[in-house]
């Protein structure tokens, strides 16, 4: 069982061990622009090929004095932009402060773990600890603090050789999770139980009112009827991704297909024969949802060009 490290001198020692491990493994350093809520500053960070690290001690004049430990992913690190911190694992410099996400805890064999309480919402409704745990494969580890117990995510043992590997996994998981939350693919509703889901529907609309009207502004692009006809004619009733026939015959007797621009119009793609294919609705949705590189390749090779123009 892990026990939370709460004594000021011991926390200090743990933080020094963390810094030492990171110093040994993140053997590069350089100046980069790092983004914080409310601005960005040029900071000297330590990094390797996977992760970067920045730390500060936020002193006693603050409401919650803490060791501020910020981590990011090197795959996204750039000298031309402000770089976002993926996660902060801050540690109160003394005692217990559950508003700060991180803490150290020691087990019977004297191993010291770096823990994160799992709150990752950054203010986003419902995107918190439970959602992250349901989505990721992380499990909570119980930790005792004096007589109380709590559970948190064990990021890694700070003196072990695989610590930075574990930390990298943690960062990748958080980054992917935040990405899905940002695109709306996972949200407040995704991970709740069936009962709670039903409950939320009932409390949200107890009088079964019809939905309110909404207006959305969408940007569209002009498309040529001739290019569309070209794509449909060459698809000849069969989806150019899955090769199945269009799912039904339209009133005009043609197998229903949708015209898709391989390089999206919204990203500067052209409305020209070399960029259009006919897709069944499922495959069309698939392209707009995941736009898989293999599928793109297949569609590019399926395009028929009659003449150069
Ligand atoms: Zn298809
Ligand atoms: Zn499309």
UniProtKB/TrEMBL annotation:
<dbReference type="InterPro" id="IPR002711">
    <property type="entry name" value="HNH"/>
</dbReference>
<protein>
    <submittedName>
        <fullName>HNH endonuclease</fullName>
    </submittedName>
</protein>
<dbReference type="GO" id="GO:0008270">
    <property type="term" value="F:zinc ion binding"/>
</dbReference>
<keyword id="KW-0378">Hydrolase</keyword>
<keyword id="KW-0540">Nuclease</keyword>
<dbReference type="GO" id="GO:0003676">
    <property type="term" value="F:nucleic acid binding"/>
</dbReference>
<dbReference type="InterPro" id="IPR003615">
    <property type="entry name" value="HNH_nuc"/>
</dbReference>
<feature type="domain" description="HNH nuclease">
    <location>
        <begin position="226"/>
        <end position="285"/>
    </location>
</feature>
<keyword id="KW-0255">Endonuclease</keyword>
<dbReference type="Pfam" id="PF01844">
    <property type="entry name" value="HNH"/>
</dbReference>
<dbReference type="GO" id="GO:0004519">
    <property type="term" value="F:endonuclease activity"/>
</dbReference>
């Amino acid at each position: 069982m892990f026990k939370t490290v709460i004594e000021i001198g011991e926390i200090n020692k743990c933080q020094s061990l963390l810094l030492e491990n990171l110093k040994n493994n993140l053997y590069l350093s350089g100046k980069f622009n790092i983004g914080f809520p409310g601005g960005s500053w040029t900071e000297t960070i330590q990094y390797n090929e996977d992760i970067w690290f920045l730390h500060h001690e936020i002193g006693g004049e603050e409401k919650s004095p803490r060791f501020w430990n910020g981590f990011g992913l090197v795959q996204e690190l750039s000298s031309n932009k402000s770089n976002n911190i993926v996660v902060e694992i801050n540690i109160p410099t003394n005692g217990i402060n559950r508003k700060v996400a991180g803490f150290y805890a020691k087990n019977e064999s004297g191993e010291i773990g770096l823990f994160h309480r799992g709150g990752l919402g950054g203010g986003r409704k419902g995107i918190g600890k439970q959602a992250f745990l349901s989505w990721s494969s992380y499990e909570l580890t119980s930790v005792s603090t004096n007589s109380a117990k709590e559970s948190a995510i064990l990021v890694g043992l700070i003196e072990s050789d695989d610590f930075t590997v574990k930390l990298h996994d943690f960062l990748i998981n958080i980054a992917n999770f935040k990405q899905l939350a940002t695109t709306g693919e996972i949200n407040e509703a995704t991970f709740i139980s069936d009962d709670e889901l039903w409950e939320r529907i009932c409390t949200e609309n107890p009088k079964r009112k019809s939905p309110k009207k909404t207006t959305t502004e969408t940007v569209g692009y002009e498309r040529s009827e001739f290019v569309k006809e070209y794509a449909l004619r060459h698809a000849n009733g069969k989806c150019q991704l899955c090769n199945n026939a269009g799912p039904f015959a339209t009133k005009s007797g043609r197998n229903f297909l949708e015209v898709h621009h391989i390089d999206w119009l919204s990203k500067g793609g052209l409305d020209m024969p070399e960029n259009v294919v006919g897709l069944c609705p499922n495959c069309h949705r698939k392209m707009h949802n995941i736009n898989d590189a293999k599928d793109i390749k297949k569609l590019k090779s399926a395009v028929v060009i009659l003449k150069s123009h």
